[in-house]
Amino acid sequence: MNISVEDKSKVDKVITITATEEDLKPRFEKAFREYRKKINMPGFRPGQVPVSIVKKRFGKEIESEEINNYVQEVFRDEIVPKYEPVGEPRFEDMSWENGQLEVKIGIGVKPDFEMTDLSSLEIDKMVHDVTDEEVDEELNSSLERAATWKESDQPVEETSKVTVDAVPLDEKGEPKADEQDTDKELDLNDDENADFRKGLKGAKAGDEVKVTLGEGDDAETFQLTVKKVYEKVIPELNEEFVKGATQGQLSSVDDYRSKLRSQIQDYYDQVSADMVKQEIMDKLIEAHSDMEVPTALVEKVQDSLLERMKQQQQGQPLPDGFDEQEYKESVREDAEREARWAFILDELGKKHEDLEITEEDIDARLASEAARYGLPTEMVKNFYAQSGDQLENLRQNIRTDKLFDRIIDEISLNELDKEAYQEKKKKERNEENDS
Q1: For residue 120, what pLDDT is reported?
Q2: For residue 394, what are the domain limits?
Q3: CA–CA separation, 161 vs 185, rounded Å?
Q4: DSSP secondary structure string, 309-347?
Q5: Which GO BP terms, alphabetically (predicted)?
Q6: 45, pLDDT greater than 80
Q7: Quick one: 32 and 74 in the same domain?
Q8: Which pLDDT belongs to residue 176?
Q9: Partner residues linked to 7 by β-bridges
Q10: Between vectors from CA 424 to CA 422 and to CA 426, what angle results, nearest 5°?
């Protein structure tokens, strides 16, 4: 048996495994003997079929299976420990002729690169303290969400909801009675009903109104009969409302305002932290833009991006004529960035191998997950306890967050208030688009 290596690039290799019949013969003979124990043939006692007949009847299939097993063992025992392949290996060629086996396998290996000095990175961080106006806005949104509808005898307003019978009109303005849509509810607050809102404003129950949707050749006119008009009733901000909005946890309006302020502040703090992480990733990837990434890993990421896109379809079929290969090529740059980041993150992890994930860390993350989705903590714990993969993902996410905390200690943070931060990022985007 012999293994040779051809370097296609610094990170792409083709491994050639060669073996002779002499190398493989002991495996074949053992397989023949094992196989004869499993088959029954007329005229022979179970397990006593002559090996010569086994070879004649099943020899090619058995040899093919053993060759595959042999190649997998060589790859596992010889190639993986030495080259530590990344991504999926690609079997480029395999031949078994005249007692000679030759297998070519394409693999990717980790790039050799020098990590940039983290202290040279300057990252902008948005710092924002929640204002009274923002609390008032969220409080009003809470009241709006709790609003009810009350039938009214007043004219339709822009905030009304109406029930109508809608009849499309033909080119001559005659009703298409067979296409009537009865008891159709329209919430005029919805932007999708902007044309209806404009046409119905000022009408009362019993009125007939013509409304045209769309423009030009796409325009369609309807005759609407207003059957009911509803006005929105905003609840009063009082103890009863607060109890209902907090499932009985709070009753005081001041306490509710404090809770809203805390929630909004948590949101801004989380958004700020996420933007810092994203900027760190972007700048580190940019700093290592000359890093070669193995084809095998890029293809693996392309496949995962394709799967992610399919899952976002939520069971809906892909558009007619969708070309998967074309899509994968369109996301190649993103796949290369993800692959590059994976190596950078791995290198940073080696630098901070002392990071530990404690039970307290896991409990805190589970409690945070439970609060985020409004679920009991025990329910979330049971979910993760039943899935080893999910629990491992949770541990990896905690480790990555801790790693980012270490990185942030080493870089320079430039704190900006929300307005200054947004203005700076807008200017940077404009400059990037102009270049």
Answers
A1: 93
A2: 118-129+245-292+352-434
A3: 7
A4: HHHHTTTPPPPTT--HHHHHHHTHHHHHHHHHHHHHHHH
A5: 'de novo' cotranslational protein folding; cell division; protein transport; protein unfolding
A6: no
A7: yes
A8: 87
A9: 13
A10: 65
